[in-house]
Design brief:
Keywords: Hydrolase, Protease, Thiol protease. The structure is a single chain. This protein is of the alpha+beta class. It has a single domain, classed as endopeptidase fold (from Nostoc punctiforme), CATH 3.90.1720. The two termini are 28 Å apart. 27% of the residues lie in helices and 23% in strands.
Length: 148
């Protein structure tokens, strides 16, 4: 496991039990699934790449653009599903024909950490329920070393 992946997992674990709050990204205070990814990103790189526009929490939303998926393709490194490793971001399409509206971080080969509506940031086993809805995987980009 690379040092970056270990950092991702370590930071992700710190978010456990953060209460669910739509559009929030504050460890210990409130977060949704995107907020978890944003928070881990901030801890790795110091800031977020863009201000996040408003979005709905509706997992069955069918109209509009694949904003979540397209943003992930810009700011993270897309990888084939079969190459996914702990420390990677997983994106899910929760209903057939719906937009991709859920994210998690794979923290072990059979465990994901994600913000669960109405509850908190939690660990869940990566069981067939999640596997059937899994559509994309992304790695956090390597941290560039600045030269003096």
């Amino acid at each position: 496991m690379t040092a970056l992946r270990a950092r991702v997992i370590s930071e992700t674990r710190l978010w456990l039990d953060t209460p669910y709050q739509h559009q929030a990204s504050e460890r210990g205070a409130g977060s949704d699934c995107l907020g978890l990814i944003r928070g881990v990103y901030r801890s790795l790189y110091g800031s977020e790449p863009i201000a996040v526009p408003p979005y709905t929490p509706d997992w069955a939303e069918r109209s509009g653009k694949e904003t979540l998926l397209e943003a992930a393709k810009i700011y993270l490194k897309e990888i084939p599903l079969h190459r996914t490793q702990p420390g990677d971001v997983l994106i899910f399409r929760m209903h057939p024909g719906a937009l991709c509206k859920h994210m998690a971080i794979l923290t072990s080969p059979n465990m994901i950490t994600h913000a669960y509506w109405g509850r908190a940031v939690v660990d869940s086993y990566f069981v067939p329920y999640w596997n059937r809805r899994w559509v994309s995987s992304f790695a956090f980009p390597e941290i560039e070393k600045k030269t003096l």
